[in-house]
Amino acid sequence: MVKTRSTFVCQNCGASYPKWTGKCENCGEWNTLVEQAPAASGKSAVSRSAGSVLKTQTVASIEGDDRTARLSTGISDLDVVLGGGVLVGGVVLLAGQPGIGKSTLLLQVTAHIAASNPVLYVSGEESAAQVKLRAERLGASDRDDLHFAASTSADDIATTIRTGAYKLVVVDSVQTLTLGEIASAPGSVSQITNSSNVIIQAAKSAGAAVVLVGHVTKEGSIAGPKVLEHLVDVVLQFEGDRYGGFKVVRAVKNRYGSTSEAAIFEMNEQGLGVVENPSAALLAERQNADGSVVLATLEGTRPLLVEIQALVNPTSFGYPKRTASGFDLNRLNLLIAVLERRTKLNLSDKDIYVNVVGGLKLADPAADLAVCMAIASAAAGKRLDEETVVFGEVGLGGEVRSAIGAPRRIDEAKKLGFTKAIAPASSKESSFVTGVRDLRQALIDYLQ
Predict the structure, then answer these.
(1) Is residue 61 part of a domain?
(2) Tens digit of pLDDT for each residue in 65-117?
(3) Number of domains in the chain
(4) 131 membership: H or E segment, kind and range
(5) Shared-domain flag, residues 257 and 289
(6) Residues 251, 236: contact at Cβ < 8 Å?
(7) 31 Cβ contact partners less than 8 Å away, ≥ 6 residues apart
(8) pTM value?
(9) Is 290 left (phi over 0), alpha (psi -120 to 50) or beta?
(10) Domain range holding 165?
(11) CA pair distance 113, 123, nearest whole angstrom
């Protein structure tokens, strides 16, 4: 008989090794290898003739069903992110930092849906009394069709879903689930993968919508194996500062809608509320000082005006420090190099700090020009006109490249009373837009 040997599986990427090695050679993480018992052998070798011929049909002959219906969450912006609401029979994965408001948001959603449909909220992390306290604070404790269960058994949850008694099931969280057949601890790769598979199959067969809550790593990526994101239909990322500021929910993956939409929330005593005019809120306390520039950006397809702040100080050490909050640090270093090479600014002996006001994280390439002008403004001690917005991508040659959605950015600036926009020359549409072709021209002409 061949002796079965256990394997060691990385909890970060899912790679397996015959022995423990301390560091995963695939993803480079340390101390993430966990021993996993071998699967039961049984009759593993099946002949190729054991299968049967699949019964096929043409796509035109497939009849539709009622699973194309959507359940409205009661939050219009979140419905847009989901592609029209929660799809019946679909599985959604919601991930975010601890304490950012995932459970609060889902309890608000389940309370609204429970007004017309039976809903089950399953928690593996909190007791019934803890959930009751939150429900009372959010005004969701009087829903007769909102049911609760405290369980970590994926088998029990899947069996409950298959009864068809609930239109929506929320599982908080997938990292606490265990499957009876798997011997590893909760949160391991094998437990997360197999538990999710069981629940997803139950959701598809019963036609119930399921929302799985996921954790994130210290780098901000979704914890667990990447296969979890492939299994579900929609992946929502909950971003922002858990201690204050705005919080953004965006779709990373959506089989039934767009991934270019975003919902912006802020926390208050009644839970998470949609920010109706985030641009005005972000600029309410702005002071027109050197190093302050207003950027016209896009959160998905939604235009947004946000303040970019920069601070430039002489360095006290041999190596200058560069720090960015809400902006990619590697991109910042690249823009500083372009500023030094393509203009006469000397930043090699300066500490540079860049901050995006409101706790937002920018991934918009059109933020380049605003960041460069904020750094140059702080370094030279000159201010930009307070009624001017800036957007545009900066290339390595110092050229200012076009930005997507320029008309939407311009319309948002006009609504808030701005009179001028410094933008790429290609987006010049009227006297409102002042087109610039390179970074040097923008700094010379518009910093006062």
Answers:
(1) no
(2) 665 688 999 999 999 999 999 999 999 999 999 889 999 999 999 999 999 99
(3) 3
(4) helix 128-138
(5) no
(6) yes
(7) 22
(8) 0.80
(9) beta
(10) 66-276
(11) 18
